[in-house]
Design brief:
It comes from Roseateles agri. The protein is α/β, with parallel strands linked by helices. Helices cover 34% and strands 28% of the residues. It binds adenosine-5'-triphosphate.
Amino acid sequence: MDAILHAQDVHAWYGSSHVLHGVDFAIGRGETVGLLGRNGMGKSTLIRTLLGHVPQRDGRVTLFGRDVSRARPHEIARRGVAFVPEGRGVFPNLSVRENLLMAARKGLDGRADWTYERVLQTFPRLQERLGNLGAQLSGGEQQMLSIGRALMTHPELIILDEATEGLAPLIVAEIWKVIGEIRASGIATLIVDRDYRRVLAGADRAVVIQKGRVAMAGKAAELAADPALAGYLGI
Ligand SMILES: Nc1ncnc2c1ncn2[C@@H]1O[C@H](COP(=O)(O)OP(=O)(O)OP(=O)(O)O)[C@@H](O)[C@H]1O
């Protein structure tokens, strides 16, 4: 596989608590990968470790073949990885317009197809709120703005951690629609979401984490049909 991101034998600790126990994991160009597992199994820690946010970590992570195992979060962002954290990622004291324009930069290959106008077409709700401050937006609008900001950076990979958590069903449906558009536009995505059915329906592959280890990994359709999945997800 032509991997964007490749993690090998990744470990992570919080103090003396050993949370990730040797995770192997890869995301190919343009691939949509779902990350599943019950609460507390290590999904967010894996993401935060890949992004360089967990200081106590071990193992090897490469981005486009370059070792970023010890890289700082801003270096990883500069190398084409955008992060959409749960319910955050917008500047509360800047307007929607400023939030978007501030994020704008070309992709690693010079791509600039996610223009300000295209982001607003994708999120008509933001178009109506251009002058509002980030803090004045609803949770769903903030999440859309956060995804819009990620798109404006022309990343190779977008990581979405619980992007639909706590949002109204209509907004959730809008966000899944946009996730589909991102997939179709060729940007790779790593998705964590409690709605495992939607994740499996919208992903090429999925990885199931159990107590800081990969318990299952494979094509999303095959995992969806695997009777072992229910046990790992506690459903
Ligand atoms: N900052 C932290 N300090 C100490 N322990 C933590 C910290 N963050 C997470 N943990 C612990 O690490 C383990 C993995 O948590 P993590 O948040 O990665 O799981 P998760 O699969 O993302 O679950 P959730 O869906 O609940 O976020 C849990 O036991 C959790 O209590």
